[in-house]
Each structure stands twice: as C-alpha cells, then as structure tokens.
Design brief:
Layout lengths: L18 H6 L5 H18 L2 H5 L9 H23 L11 H7 L7 H20 L3 H4 L2 E4 L2 E4 H22 L4
Antiparallel strand pairs: 1-2
Helix pairs in contact: 2-6, 2-8, 4-6, 4-8
Length: about 180
Amino acid sequence: MTTFRTVRPAPSEYNSFYAGYVNAVSDGDIIEALVSQKSSLLNWIDSASTKQADFRYAPGKWSAKEVVGHIIDTEWIFTYRALRFARGDQSPLPGMDQNQFMEGANFAERSLGDLRVEFSGLRTASTQLMGSFSEAVLDRVGIASDCPFTVRAMMWITAGHCQHHLTILNERYKMS
C-alpha cells in the first residue's frame, strides 16, 4: 500500500552525494524502516564483544565503537535538520565534517553499552519526531551544506546513513 511515508524522495529533493544513502533504504514505510533498523543496530551492539568494539579492520579506520558513535552524531545532525526544515526555518545550516567531529569525540573512551543507550534514546526520539510529520511537511525545503533538501529526503538519508554503516559493521567488523 502506498502512503505518503512510503514515497521515496526524488533526486531533486537532495544533493546527489546522498543518493547512495537514499538507495540503501528498502521500499516501504520510512518510519517502520527506522524502527526496524534500530533493532538491527541494537542487536549488533548486544552481540559485540569488547574486543570487537575496539576492532579496526585496517590501519587508520575507525573502531566499531567509533562507527557507532559516528552513526549517533550524524543522526543528531540529520534529525535536527529535519526538525528545522519541518518547522519552516529557512536559515541555511552548515555542513558537517565527519573527521572534525571524530577528532572532537571520545568514543574510544566510552563503552559500547553507553553508546547503545544514546543511540536507542536518540532513535526513539527521531522516530517520534519524524512520525509526527504530516504529508505537507515532508515537502518543505531547507538548505544545508549550501544545498536544498526536503524533510522527506532527510528522513530517508537518516535511515540510509545508518544502513550504510550497519552494513559495514556486519561485513568488516566480524570477528572469528
């Protein structure tokens, strides 16, 4: 069944850089996808050992804890953008330099359990917020990183970014 929450954003609704994230999300209700994805990441965290949490699959790559922290930081940013755009705020928002954010973070010092609690609460809040948006709100446009985005696009990008990194966690952070 097609509802306004199952309509994938058109390429004109976001910067082409984010196409991979939008395409990483399966067809269906975006709110249901966000809820399901929460369970998937929490299950990954619950099954990870301390050794796996600190594992880096190659020199210079983030540890699994840092990947989870990056997912959290980015969700904070994307959800904030969705909120601002949904409320009609036309103030241009700055970009996010993931490397600068990582330099300012202390994910290596935090437990995976602590990151789990933060992600769980954040995703619950994000899902509540995004689930409250009406069909008309999803078409509202805001500017971030000097590019226009719809609220709908921010929702799909949020899910797609998490999915992208969840796939990496599952593929590259497996421990034997």
